[in-house]
Amino acid sequence: MKRTKLLLFFQQFSIWFKILLGELMNNLISLVLILAVYLTLWHFPQTIDLLLILNQADAFFLEIPLYFVLLTAAAFLIWNIPKYFYYHNYKDISLANLIGFIPNQHYRFQNRSGFASYSYIARVHMRKVVPRILGTLLLIISALSILHAMKLFGLENMYTSFLSPEVSLMISILFLLCLCEPRLYRRFQKMFLKLPRTDIVVLAVLIGLIVLMISLGSLNTQAEKDLGKLFLSNSALVLFFFLLSFNSYRFLKKFPNKKFYGAILAAGFLILLGFIVLNFIPDWASMINPLTVLILSLLSLFMISFILILIGKKIKLPLLSMSCFLCFLSTTFFTSSSTHYQLELKDTEVKRKPMEAYFYQWIQSREHLIQAHKEKFPVIIASAEGGGSRAGLWSFLVHSYLYEKTKGKYFEEHLLSLTGASGGSVGNAMFFATSKEASDEEKLATFKAQENMYGLKYKASQVYKKNYLSASILSFLGRDLFKMITSLFKFQNRGQLLEEQWKTSHRNYFSEEGIENSLLGQEFLSFYKDISSTIPAPPLLLINTTHTQSGNYNVISPVTYDHLRPLSGMNDFLGNLQYSYPDKSIALSTAMRINASFPYVTPVGEIKQLDEEGNEVYTDQYADAGYYDNIGGRVSKGVEEVFITVLQKSFPSLVDKIEIKHLVIAHNEKRKAMKKATQLSAPLTTLQNVRIGHTKEAMNKLGNSYAVTLTPQAIVPYIKKRSYGRHNESDERMITPVLPVGRYLSTIAIRSMEAALERVKPKLDTIL
What we know:
Layout: H1 2-26, H2 28-43, H3 45-56, H4 60-80, H5 87-90, H6 118-152, H7 158-162, H8 165-179, H9 182-193, H10 198-218, H11 227-246, H12 248-251, H13 257-280, H14 290-315, H15 319-335, E1 345-347, E2 353-354, H16 355-364, H17 367-372, E3 377-384, H18 388-406, H19 409-414, E4 415-420, H20 422-440, H21 459-463, H22 470-477, H23 479-486, H24 494-510, E5 540-541, E6 543-547, E7 553-556, E8 559-560, E9 571-572, H25 573-580, E10 584-586, H26 588-595, E11 605-610, E12 616-623, H27 633-650, E13 658-667, H28 682-702, E14 707-710, H29 747-765
Parallel strand pairs: 2-8, 3-4, 3-13, 4-5, 7-9, 13-14
Antiparallel strand pairs: 1-10, 6-7, 6-12, 11-12
């Protein structure tokens, strides 16, 4: 008897599982959307950081509701879109009646007798339940991603103490799977219906959840512990949707079905329309939180898939599958011939000198200063670690302080070279361009900002307060994806859009009014033209990048160096470029971009190499410098060796008068060492940690005598207006924000970085 029951159980389980797989296939685009949200919110550092930015946003009461509205729209679309794919629904759909069509016709043909087989009962049940479950799962993933982020950032609170995001997600999935079994579902339903006045209780709970979400938002202080409130709000949204979707038959009796389904589809098409408009005007995306833009983009791709499936059903062709296959073929075909990601080349008349000749001139033009200096003359070699906008701002702030402190002498007299990787090198370049322009005009640059409502003290902070990420995400999932598939039309790729944003922001804060030409848009070598022995040679700006096809380190340098042993093996970017394109170079902003190419978010830059007859041979591609060396330490050590050689050979009397100092602009990131990796994960773990290991090795070689590390500092969460008088920090709740890695910094994170600058000022003062 027991054996018979066991066999019957496994037989029914096999039937149930096959039906579940079949129903999931009918919800395939929903599964893809859920998987995309899971991967982006749980496994990509840049998007995990966006949860911090969402919580720290200045326009909190606009950005959080918009994010929640899009999540809710996604859940409702996942719940209802699959209904349109059943034959008894789509056969009657037309363009005229699509909005307002009630996709419930398939329920009319169900066998309602009590003698139906288990397979039939399970199939009918899953058609109703699976879409609701998937909508709920999307919201659960978004809520638990906040808990996951708190765990990663080490933000301990009552939620992280009692809940594990991974375990909670597994338990949630198991519970939702139980609801897919019709007999278990009926038991849960009977337990629920035993509650007195069920309708009133459900309505009261739904209203209470809305009030809870609003009240939790009003209590936000932008502190990381308020991520707990954001987690609780998102969890309330999960419960709200779960109760509403599984009790919809109660509420839809009192609500017109046409308006309900029409509103859901209309919301989906409005989201798609907004996505299309933003792709035509990507600057508008910069006014929206990147996480919201990400959900908007994924939802729009979901709606496009829905349209293709519905049309395919009507014309009896697998249109989505055919479109995906054709897209794969077209991308393969167009990739080799596409010029969409080609770097823009600029004319140049500047001939590069050998590095040792340049250093000779650098020392010669400062010889009188070195001789007159009472103590050892500091020669500074700056190296800036990568890490998105926070790295760029940190290096920019450090340079700005040293410039202001010395009234320009830091740049004019002591700085020998600037190098780095990714965001740190971007900050170097912005500082260099500003200082060089002021030097050419024989005036001092101004890096301090006028006091504003945000309380920011430096212009660099105002530059980095801009959102440099949303337009890239939008373009990656929108116009650039379209270009890759069709190769139609000409427009700026997401890398060029980033360059334009950098140039505009820098011009707004560092150029005089009415000046339209961008300083960052100038040709790279133009900053080194007309340099004579009577004018002190400016510092060398060395921008690094990684050659995609070979993995070799490339240096974008105003001087030649590949003949020098200390720098051997590092490819000369401009030398390679000018082999095919004599008298050509790139803009400073382009050099910054290919040095700071976040994976996928920023495309690799391409340059077609030509033979002697002008025929294309192959295409070089260049990516983020941080793949190879995330601080540029190897370049800085090479510069030091070449400089010492020139000094000893040509200026022996100055050897004892000069002290070389490595200014290391880094981040104080605490990484917990993994006790043990499994044999499956060990190879990937090694690859992941190699870059970090190389960077730490380079920093150790440079030394920590003049290393200034960025450590988040406690600050007052809100800036009060002057009309309210000055506030006393001791009376306020101090917070220490976690600093994200991406290209979008909140005001509160920037203010913490300015506070960190105050902490390292004594150490910076010792450099000069």
